[in-house]
UniProtKB/TrEMBL annotation:
Ranges annotated as spanning the membrane: 127-147, 323-341, 353-377, 753-772, 817-839, 851-871, 883-905, 917-937
Superkingdom of the source species: Eukaryota
A GO CC term attached to the entry: plasma membrane
UniProt function note: Mediates magnesium influx to the cytosol.
Record InterPro entries: ATPase_P-typ_cation-transptr_C, ATPase_P-typ_cation-transptr_N, ATPase_P-typ_cyto_dom_N, ATPase_P-typ_P_site, ATPase_P-typ_TM_dom_sf, ATPase_P-typ_transduc_dom_A_sf, ATPase_P-type_domA, HAD-like_sf
Protein's recorded name: Magnesium-transporting ATPase, P-type 1
PANTHER family per record: CATION TRANSPORTING ATPASE, MAGNESIUM-TRANSPORTING ATPASE, P-TYPE 1
Major location (coarse): membrane
Residue ranges of domain Cation-transporting P-type ATPase N-terminal in the record: 79-152
Example of a GO MF term: P-type magnesium transporter activity
Length: 949
């Protein structure tokens, strides 16, 4: 394997490596506005025109285009990145000594506290009013008040109870989630070192510690490892500065920053080397910087200022409102006609008004809030069993309608841990000695164990390698830092521990780390295939770089491994420094991969079977995202990146987002815009699953925001659903629960509206033709109450398998058309019953009103109960598809109670009489005819509109 040649070639000669200089960038001149400060947006629009224009603009998505506020922030930061340091001081009206205490205090009053987002909690009464102010609640409230006025206390109490349930559920949901944006303050909870100047005649520079809220534009800040940048900062001086921008990008890797560079406009904003952003942290190094933006004018604030403003309107709630408006219009018309017709016949105004109120109650789907909230609560309980917390009940309904799921890659699709996939020499051939020395480095290093070390150790142990670390002994260690980006250990070994080594004890330095940094300290290269070691030539250097790039394009992370024999024995460990890392022999590379979860591929397949397409939105590299997606079976024919999206026009942006399945190197705002484009232009119901701060905007904008229990606090607070386990199979169960909830809710809505309108039209026909009340107010309210009680079992109904396979959305056109097709069937059945009573039993000619009321009560109650079985399925009821047992039991119970009431004391009190058994025979025939005609209408409807529910 080349060990003897390698080790015999090691020497103690040290050769200085040439320093790598950053390429110089030409300064791109850009004119600045006279006042670069951003305008305050904390007030109300100054005119009605501005307000209306704002409302109109919210209906559209800007696609790939930035807002005016974002463009100002971008232009301001790019201008500073392109400018010399002296010019930067002029832009922010500061000096190299910093601001005076008086000037800093003045600017603090002018700009306000340095917080990324000022969020005002709505008061409890505002939330309560919003929860109550719904047309449906108003209808029930008005009807209940009128019922109390008409001395119908029972009906009034029932309707008020339903309103109370609906308002309470919505109020507590909104009150619990209104505090989400305040979690942003967690980014700014550390003191800041600021350079200020003092003195009237001779000014003295002072380093003071201030609260982050008191930092103002123009302050010079001093930062060290662990410090948080209190605003957007233009760097003035740096010493090996490494910054973590994970709060903005989601990428775990740190990035190097330097003050000694001028950037160009072509560089992506978050990749600017001389700009640091609010909320990012110093990993290593130190320096000074000039604060150029604070508070609401920072990049982070611009990013988070859209929280809560881009949530798509709830199509279901909007549809319910429209139903309410239609019902109000129909109610006013029908009730007015009925009151007038009844008054002209009876000349009793109070009785006519009471009858009109009972008709209005019958026309209103009284159980809608209870059915909707019970269905959602039932789904929430079911998902809780799958270790899933539901914060917004409406999210369950959205899960049923969701047809696109956007997923952040790291930790969601992948295991968020590295595994070794290969160990290659400089020619790309697998070599055991590369793994051997990488193992020794990871085994003996003690300063800090990184995930890559654990991956190497696990790979060696699980694959049966016997590298015998007991024959090696650690002498010293040069720990990893973000400047060198490598770690070295000095080991000594016993005689013959490695190949043909003859000394009794030899000392070696084993180094591993970032590929380019390891190659910098190598003067020689091992050719294991030829069993030789030669000088490190430029051709070798380029070949290894190409190999590393090829591996990176495959989605792999690589590190280099090098070794060197120390001719001088180390006696004093304190003498060891990074100068020892020179003239080393390059051995090869170790390739790592963050593997996808075993459950992810199965879950994505199951989601695809249910019509939910997956799109990967990540801040990581495109190559890594493509590798993961290929392993999971996600198509990668259409991919794009954030920088590419920035260059597109609005139309091209939407088209690219529509086709792309993998979108990499996205900023938080780009993730949000992708979600909005899919919602508005593509008219999709979008879910977003993410766990980082950088995912918060997309989580907030999505129809269904999903996070995990281990995610960032902001992401969890903005999410509608929190997974206690990062398992996509939970989402599959959520989709099933959502479709069941949506389906049962739509069953009730269509059944109740069709049945109620059909019944009320029948009552109107009976009143106008027969000129008597078809039912007394008491009888009509009892019928309505019994029907409502029977409908409580609807949330426990099941759905057809075909309905569970595709997403279902609220359709504005489907409900009116559904009513027009199916309500006449109900009315026709009622009219047939009226004709039978009048002709066969002569109920009309003999004016046997009690007989007439009793028969109509039983027929109306039975039909309102049985209609659900016709509506609930596209198949033939009771033959091809049977309802769940709670619904069957409820149907039998309510019909039984309705038939039994006339034979009880209650029936006598309500004015009912006993009916002949022949009438029940007629009802059997009538309902057989109803189901036959209804089924024919259903088949024709499905044939034309290609759907039922």
């Amino acid at each position: 394997m080349g060990f003897p040649k390698i080790l015999s070639f090691f020497s103690s000669n040290h050769r200085k490596q040439a320093n790598n200089h950053l390429p110089s960038h030409s300064l791109i001149r850009e004119s600045l506005v006279s006042n670069p400060d951003l305008p305050n947006n904390d007030g109300f629009p100054k005119s009605l025109f501005q307000y209306l224009r704002g409302l109109m603009s919210r209906k559209k998505t800007d696609g790939g285009m930035r807002t005016e506020e974002e463009e100002k922030v971008y232009s301001w930061l790019y201008a500073l990145a392109q400018s010399d340091k002296d010019l930067v001081f002029e832009y922010v009206r500061s000096t190299e000594r910093g601001l005076s205490f008086t000037e800093a205090e003045r600017r603090l009053k002018e700009n306000g506290p340095n917080v990324p987002l000022e969020y005002t909690f709505p008061s409890w009464w505002q939330l309560l009013w919003n929860a109550f102010f719904h047309p449906f609640n108003i209808i029930l409230t008005v009807l209940s008040v009128l019922s109390f006025i008409a001395s119908d206390n029972a009906n009034g109490c029932i309707m008020l109870t339903l309103v109370l349930i609906s308002v309470s559920l919505r109020f507590f949901q909104e009150y619990g989630s209104s505090k989400a944006a305040m979690k942003l303050s967690e980014f700014l909870k550390c003191p800041v070192k600021v350079q200020r100047c003092a003195g009237r005649v001779v000014q003295t520079e002072l380093i003071v510690q201030v609260d982050q809220k008191d930092v103002v534009p123009g302050d010079i800040v001093i930062f060290e490892p662990g410090d948080l940048f209190p605003g957007d900062v233009r760097l003035l001086s740096t010493q090996h500065l490494v910054v973590s921008q994970s709060s903005l990008t989601g990428e775990s890797w740190a990035t190097e920053k330097t003050a000694d560079v001028k950037e160009g406009r072509s560089t992506p904003l978050l990749e600017l080397k001389n700009i640091c952003f609010m909320g990012t942290t110093v990993v290593s190094g130190s320096g000074t910087g000039l604060v150029v933006s604070t508070g609401a004018k920072t990049y982070m604030s611009t990013m988070f200022s859209s929280l809560g403003k881009h949530k798509p309107p709830d199509g279901f709630e909007s549809g319910i409102r429209r139903i309410s408006y239609v019902l109000i219009a129909v109610m006013l018309l029908v009730v007015t006609v009925m009151i007038l017709a009844d008054y002209l016949e009876s000349r009793n105004l109070s009785e006519s008004i009471l009858f009109g109120l009972s008709v209005a109650s019958a026309l209103t789907p009284n159980m809608l809030p209870l059915i909707v909230n019970t269905s959602l609560a039932k789904g929430a309980v079911a998902m809780a069993k799958d270790r899933c917390i539901i914060k917004s009940l409406a999210a369950i309904r959205y899960m049923g309608s969701m047809d696109i799921l956007c997923i952040d890659k790291t930790g969601t699709l992948t295991m968020n841990r590295a595994i070794v996939v290969d160990h290659l020499d400089s020619t790309g051939s697998k070599r055991e000695n590369v793994l051997h020395f990488a193992f020794l480095n990871s085994y003996f290093k003690t300063d800090q164990k990184y995930p890559l070390d654990d991956a190497i150790l696990a790979y060696v142990y699980t694959n049966g390698y016997r590298f015998q670390p007991s024959k090696w002994k650690k002498v010293n260690e040069l720990p990893f830092d973000f400047i060198r980006r490598r770690v070295s250990v000095i080991l000594k070994t016993e005689s013959n521990a490695v190949g043909r080594i003859t000394p009794i004890f030899d000392q070696f330095m084993v180094t591993k780390g970032a590929l380019e940094e390891v190659m910098k300290v190598c003067s020689f290269i091992d050719h294991a295939d030829r069993d030789t070691v030669t000088a490190f030539s430029p051709e070798d250097y380029q070949r290894i770089l190409n190999m590393g790039e090829e591996l990176s394009n495959q989605g792999l992370r690589i590190i280099g491994v090098a070794i060197k024999r120390l001719a001088l024995k180390i006696t004093n460990p304190e003498e060891v420094d990074d100068s020892f890392e020179s003239n080393m022999v390059f051995l090869g590379v170790i390739a790592f991969f963050d593997p996808p979860k075993d459950s992810a591929k199965q879950a994505l397949w199951r989601l695809a079977e249910k019509g939910v397409k997956a799109k990967v939105l990540t801040g990581d590299s495109l190559s890594l995202a493509i590798r993961i997606c290929k392993e999971l079976g996600i198509r990668t024919a259409h991919v794009t990146t954030g920088p590419d999206l920035e260059k597109l026009s609005q139309e091209a942006f939407h088209e690219t987002v529509k086709r792309a399945t993998v979108l990499a190197r996205l900023t938080p705002m780009q993730k949000q815009r992708v979600v909005q484009s899919l919602q508005t232009i593509g008219e999709h119901v979008v879910g977003f699953l993410g766990d980082g701060v950088n995912d918060s905007l997309a989580i907030d904008a999505a129809n269904v925001g999903i996070s995990v229990d281990s995610g960032a606090s902001v992401a969890k607070d903005l999410a509608d659903i929190i997974l206690l386990e990062k398992d996509l199979n939970v989402l599959v169960a959520g989709v099933e629960h959502g479709r069941l909830t949506f389906g049962n809710t739509m069953k009730y809505i269509k059944m109740s509206v069709v049945g109620n309108i059909g019944t009320v039209l029948s009552l109107l026909i009976a009143l106008l033709v027969l000129q008597i009340e078809p039912l007394s107010p008491r009888q009509l309210l009892t019928q309505t109450f019994l029907c409502s009680v029977g409908q409580i079992a609807i949330p426990w109904d099941k759905m057809e398998d075909d309905s569970m396979k595709i997403p279902h959305k609220w359709s504005e056109k489907s409900l009116p058309m559904f009513i027009l097709w199916n309500s006449p069937v109900c009315t026709l059945t009622d009219v047939a019953n009226l004709a039978f009573l009048a002709l066969y039993y002569s109920a009309y000619t003999s004016m046997d009103v009690k007989f007439f009321h009793t028969a109509l009560f039983i027929e109306g109650l039975s039909m309102q109960t049985l209609i659900f079985h016709l509506i609930r399925t596209a198949k033939t009821p009771f033959i091809q598809d049977i309802a769940s047992w709670p619904v069957i039991c409820s149907t039998i119970l309510i019909c039984g109670i309705g038939i039994a009431i006339p034979y009880t004391i209650i029936g006598k009190w309500m004015g009912f009489v006993k009916l002949p058994f022949s009438y029940f025979g007629f009802l059997v025939v009538l309902f057989l005819g109803y189901f036959t005609v209804g089924q024919i209408v259903k088949r024709v409807y499905i044939l034309i509109f290609e759907r039922w529910l």
